[in-house]
């Protein structure tokens, strides 16, 4: 799947479904754009507060948004709680990723999707509901795997999590805007 990138007036996002969050720039790492992830909620059951002290001790700008990184990386402790919660809520057969890279995988019968609870990333001023296709990837017709991974060195909101969103970076107002969309139609 490919997407388009717009600049200038063509990049302005508006409408009732657009949500925006502050864009945090870092003098130490000027090539990265940071957002502040406050928590992730799973279904109606649990909200997991997000902390990433490696990136920012004051929790402002605690995760990089990066369209060049496939997966989303979060700290080990946060990931462990996320995985534990998902395992308790997903009624499917666990399987191992043959490569050993992805940590949480399930059997998928003939390419069908598994029943996954709603996952919402809560950024400052912006709640982003992540569709199942953004949080679980089909590795083959019998295997789906969670697209978030543990990493204590860096926190990244990767491109699988960003699928099917128009995302606008406003460097004048220092904000990032999200609009859910079907990218196959653009």
UniProtKB/TrEMBL annotation:
One GO term describing the cellular component: extracellular region
Example GO BP: proteolysis
Keyword Secreted attributed: yes
Subcellular localization(s) per the UniProt record: Secreted
GO molecular function: aspartic-type endopeptidase activity
Pfam families per record: TAXi_C
InterPro entries per the UniProt record, alphabetical: Aspartic_peptidase_AS, PEPTIDASE_A1, Peptidase_aspartic_dom_sf, Plant_Aspart_Prot_A1, TAXi_C
Keywords carried by this UniProt record: Hydrolase, Protease, Secreted
Domain Peptidase A1: 1-179
Designated name of the protein: Aspartic proteinase nepenthesin-2
Species this chain originates from: Solanum tuberosum
